Amino acid sequence: MSSGKANINYSMQSFDITKANYLSNLPVFETKDLIHLKQQEIINKMNRFYGKIIDIHFFMLNNKELTNNQKLDYCSIERYFMKLYLKEIIKKG
Domain boundaries in the chain? Predict the structure, then answer.
């Protein structure tokens, strides 16, 4: 059972009114650099698309037994990702 007494000693400075926390100092209200975040998002997309282009290209180079129809399919997929990559380059501009 508890005796009801707590041995907690707070300094009086923690209750000082002159050191009040203002909302603007809290981390929730930190300003974010939205332009930098948008640029980083575009760069991440570009890297993803470029990686897919390279993967498809090397897959086609390393698989000699692909039929012409399969090669055309992979080329169209590679072209699709190239378009997306170029769109992101234009956005980054």
Answer: 32-92
